[in-house]
Amino acid sequence: MTGQELAGYTSALLVGLVIGLAGGGGSILTVPIFVYVFRVPAVLATTYSLFVVGATSFIGSANHIWHKRINLPVAVAFALPSFLSVYVSRRFIVPAIPDPLLQIGSVYLAKSDAILYFFVIVMVLAARAMIRNDRPDRGEAADGRPRYGALARDGLAVGMLTGTIGAGGGFLIVPMLILLAGLPIQQAVATSVLIIAINSFVGFLGDIGHTAMNWNFLLPFTGLSIIGIFIGMALAHFVAPQRLKKGLGWFILAVATYMFIQEVSKL
């Protein structure tokens, strides 16, 4: 194993750590790790990301369910339309994207490059949310009555994002659950982990029939990520997660900058 691969496997711990602490965000790191450390093609990297994030979040959500931290009615209201858009985007839309996506004379934009550019945009938004701590304490559902229609609509949008780039969207889900369902932060984080788990597995199922999987690589990486989520959930009881999130936000911004430079250098 090379030093680069060792660093990649070690970073799997960070993926789980962030999901355990913040209810999302760690998934935004998996695609860059797969593409730039392990040299996995971009579209396949999004498939791998869905499996890793799904398995890691499922283990974390089982722990949250055991401790009764998850609001199941809110999770169902958000998740059902989200599952639908994840599966449709993964099964039909992503395979239907032409390659190259755009071609003008000798200049063209490959499908894989377009996905990575979109991913960079999402990473910058996620980093901004983490750095600024965009998590309201109250929202329009502060009266405790969830806005189920708005939750379903936003679930559709998050599902499309998950299906397209292979990220769980936790940095979007948690604020939505606070604003639209009136959940406390801790309950929103726990509910987000469950939604991410099922969203990611649904997206992965949309790929499994037409994608060759390297399980010898994927399972060890996932195992390390699962260890990371237990570390993250343990740290959440003793460490102020907001300070860690801000540092991780700057790290994600740095990774996004690196990705952008790498992609632009190909032009």
Describe the fold and architecture:
This protein starts with a helix and ends with a helix. It is built from ten helices and two strands. With 267 residues, it is mainly alpha-helical. It has helices at residues 3-22, 27-37, 42-66, 72-96, 111-132, 148-165, 170-181, 185-208, 215-235, 241-265; strands spanning 102-104, 107-109. Helix 1 (3-22) crosses helix 9. The longest helix has 25 residues, at 42-66. A two-stranded antiparallel sheet has the order 1-2. It has one domain. The model has no long low-confidence stretch (mean pLDDT 82). The radius of gyration is 18 Å and the shape is globular.
Key features of this structure:
two-stranded antiparallel sheet, 267 residues, mainly alpha, globular
**Helix-strand makeup class:** mainly alpha
Whole-angstrom Rg = 18 Å
Which strands sit side by side, in order, in the main sheet? 1-2
Portion in strands: under 5%
Task: Give the N-terminus to C-terminus distance in angstroms.
Answer: 31 Å
Residue windows where pLDDT falls under 50 for at least 5 positions:
none
Helix content: over 70%
Mean pLDDT: 82
Number of helices: 10
Identify the overall geometry.
globular
Number of domains: 1
Order of helices and strands: HHHHEEHHHHHH
Strand tally: 2
Main sheet characteristics: 2 strands, antiparallel
